[in-house]
Amino acid sequence: MKITRDLLLLAITIACATAPAAPAWGALAPWTAAERATFWDSPQDAAPKELLGINDEFKGRSYTTGDEFHLELFAPKVRNLGGGYMGVGSDQAYIFIGWARPEVAWLTDYDPLVVALHAAYRVFFLHSADGAAFLQRWNSKNAAESLALLKQQLPPTVSKSTLAAFRLSRSLIWARLNRVRHMLNKAKQPCFLDEAAAYAHIQQLYQLERIRPLSANLLESKAIVGIGAAARTLGVHIHGLYLSNAEEYWPYSPQFRKNIQSLPFGDAAIVWRTLSGFKKNGDYCYHIQTAASYLGYLQRKVWKVFAIMRCGDKTPEQAAQLLYTDRVPPELKPKAPAIQRSN
What we know:
The protein folds into two domains: 1-30, no CATH class; 34-335, no CATH class. The chain is built from 14 helices and seven strands. The chain has helices at residues 5-18, 33-40, 75-78, 91-100, 112-126, 131-136, 143-153, 156-186, 196-207, 223-234, 254-261, 278-281, 291-299, 316-319, and strands at residues 84-87, 104-109, 211-215, 238-244, 265-277, 283-290, 322-325.
């Protein structure tokens, strides 16, 4: 029997409805030519003239690894979100994809070094049998073998930048992945490095060309709006948006608001972020907000993320816990942007 895309989506919907705790994405099909073009050909943003930071001291820094120490706080609400995933950062992306099990993922970052590194991640996921083997690709003992694999597998268009990024960041990634693996296992929230199903899901998405790293600046006009348009064309609703602490870098500009409002969020979509809290707890504050709440605040034209939540006004005990917001400003409830229904 010929399986059409509509039948496939219906099967996925039924599977989600009958077993919401464990979406069955094994039936994901390869893109049609038209779908592939929609997913892969949406525009990117140009590299920025400067990498921003929370203040002048942090400007110009590349974050080729995450530095958030308690990502397990996000796990209960991120697991099995399904739908589409969009997020910034490097290693965090794969932790969240493994937990959320999305159908598609857009890995968005404005730092060319981070975008280049995702090409190395892709090669290692496709050529490593499991999380343990993947982890060893970053070990200094295997550096020569890993470089040879990258040279063999990378297309010429990205080979030079990705090889340079790997040489520069390999040891940092090795240390980070080992540390995050230990942290998450200790918290009983294992990630793709130890959870076979999570690793297999990431690997399958790469095999099916359903993970796309791209140069995307939250303040520019092309990439994020392009992702929103592509998602709508593909019939994909964004169920998860991860912003790290990027919102601390700048006020909410009109273009930023337009970018977020262009995304076709599902009715149960969430946004998760961190805010600097090192003076409080030596780490970040961890925050989840419903997409409906976030859109409501953006419509209200709040100046910056601190109008939604602050880390500085939390006690050290509060700062070490997950903070959650589903509040829509009361005066906006009748006008809040409609959230599209999930498949």
